[in-house]
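Why do we care about 3D structure at all? Because function follows from shape, and shape follows, mostly, from sequence. That is the central idea of this module. The next example makes it concrete: a single protein chain, its amino acid sequence, and then its structure expressed as tokens.
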Amino acid sequence: MNSRLPVRSVMLASSLALVSGCGLLPGSAGSTDITIWMMEGSVTDEFVKAFKDDYEDKHPSIDLNIEIKGWAGIGNTVTAALGGKDTPDVIEVGNTQVAQYADSNNLRDLTLESVRDLGSKDWLPGLADPGSIDGAQFGIPWYAANVVVIYNKDLFEQAGIKTPPKTRDEWIDDTTELNQNGNQGIYLSGQDWYTLCGFIWDEGGELATESGGQWRGAIDTPAAIKGMEFYKELQALGKAPKDADHTQPDQAEVFAKGKIAQIISTPGAAAKIEELNPALKGKLGFFPVPGKTADKPGRVLTGGSDLVVPKNSAHRFEAVQVVSELADEKWQVELAKAMSFVPNKSKLSAAVGGGESIKAMAKGAAEGRATPNSPQWANIDVNNPFKPYMTAVLQGKDVEPAAKEASEKITVALRDSSHIG
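And the structure:
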């Protein structure tokens, strides 16, 4: 999963704040145009219209201009906008991108507003932590999404499993039992590094650590290696390829054939599965990725979006006001309902309601984390060192030297502005 999940909602906030700065939509005489950039897939058209109408009704002097941006090339687009003159007033960014943009010194410090007005102590860590750089809050959490386990209820029933597992040990036992009658207990691709992150964190390991302003890879520690060993144990209970990620082949398409008991994915995959195989409609269940103990689910990588305010915005007060509205309870709940996202605060999840899938995702989000807060983390996506490491271990290479080699590659990526070779 790209740690940036659908972001259309956040674009709404960005558009709203930026209209006053760019005036892309002409307003009435004397009005302030606030321009907001939101990302494709984050909001529905209905949500954008409802927010815009409501906000402008309460603030007659404000005209919101909400622009929806695509993810392709968005990093360069935002970086150029932050350093330019015609800067939008509010921008939705992926939660793990905040450090990259903050490193340019072109974002507003919103720490005061976070503590005083926005209830920062209740934010989901996986959204709040990436937005905080050296103790200053630059990104305001907007929404979250994370993986859950999607399972075939019929196959669970055939195996005599009445309730989903709540611990890793139960998960292994149940998955082993599900391997019968030609069925696969789980389909877990060999390079699903997002899932591996959660297993590493569950063991107390880290992906990378920082000391004296320098980052180094840390997946060669004993704790992180335990996470990889659990991944190998679980992955062996299915027949997914060891040298590919979840898109090759698409795991939803494989699951839709009806012989796979479980996949690890965002709940949105269920719609595609049911479309491909209507016979599975109503037969899909959801539960959080199990943890080491039953009292809380396992760690997951939190994807989602934060809202930022550029320093060059000509309307700082208005921009912060728009962000505050988008991040507050009313619109958090509305966004979560419209997009099946998790709100920025755990306590709001109950107000969203929703079915089994949303409840499972919300439980997982409470234990969610983000990737390391390095401005260079984007380099990891260029030639990802996690993937060949995972494949090597799954194909029989000793885990310790493989982990050491991968950690060294992570260190190079995080210390150098160039891409990994």
